[in-house]
Amino acid sequence: MVIMNTKIYHDSGVELTPFTARNYDKVLNIGSMGMYRSFIKNVIRDLEIQPGDQILDLGCGTGRNAGLMSAYLNGKGRITGLDISEDMEKQFSKRFKNDNRVEFINRRIDQPLDLQKSYDKVFISFVIHGFPHEVRDTVIKNAFDQLKPGGAFFILDFAEFDMEKMPWLHRFIFEKIECKYAFDYIKRDWKEILKGYGFENFSEHFYLKKYVRLLKAVKQ
Questions:
Q1: Distances in whole angstroms, Cα of residue 128 to Cα of each of 67, 92, 136
Q2: Would you call 120 helix, strand, or coil by DSSP?
Q3: Residues in Cβ contact with 186 at an 8 Å cutoff, skipping those fewer than 6 apart
């Protein structure tokens, strides 16, 4: 989720400045020292996308992830990206101007959604940790409501870990760059939380020394 000018959640780290939004892919590449490209390719592979999947990408940003996902789709597969930044929308629309399988909807994901469509997969990448916990409730409900029965919700975000056990340099970086909501996020049992919304059959993939996880939860 990206805000153009005014933050909705003052302490959030996922609401970006206009400059960062306009240069988001470059910022990711530089900030990750070039590692993001191979990392996200591995993540998208682990989504196990089927050719005809209908996919909802919450907080889709510039469409970089959607571009990787679209490579797995045939002519019947579709991706719907949601974001509220006009800068992201411009980049997303330019990226997919010749691909009618991918659409952008300018919409907040922290308010109830009714897109009049059901999806096989809902994907959210490094967004949910940046919300207050009561707001995450709405995001999870949106994912559940938009999924087909048996559909899967994929959360790519920080894993659950104890900061006191982190190497000092990793802990220092996390403390310096992350917002206060992230510290709350890593302490929670997300499988138990998702069970309360009607999700089951969990599976997970870990990356980057197990500090990052792709958590799959299936709608009952």
A1: 21, 21, 6
A2: strand
A3: 129, 158, 159, 160, 161, 163
Give how far Cα 129 sits from Cα of 82, 104, 119, 138, Å.
17, 23, 23, 13
Q: How many angstroms separate the CA atoms of 135 and 110, rounded?
A: 6
C-alpha–C-alpha distance, residues 99 and 119, integer Å: 19
Q: What is the Cα–Cα distance from 58 to 73, expressed in whole angstroms?
A: 18
From residue 84, alpha-carbon distances to 10, 75, 110 in Å are 17, 27, 11
In tens digits, what is the pLDDT along the chain, a chain of 220 residues? 444 446 777 777 666 666 565 665 566 666 655 678 889 999 999 999 999 999 999 999 999 999 999 999 999 999 999 999 898 899 999 999 999 999 999 999 999 999 999 999 999 999 999 999 999 999 999 999 999 999 999 999 999 999 999 999 989 988 988 889 999 999 999 999 999 999 999 999 999 999 999 999 999 8
**pTM of the predicted structure, to 2 decimals:** 0.91
Amino acid residing at 209: K
Q: Which helix (H) or strand (E) holds 58?
A: strand 54-58
Rounded distance between C-alpha atoms, residue 217 and residue 206, angstroms: 15
β partners of residue 207: 212
First to last CA, the chain: 27
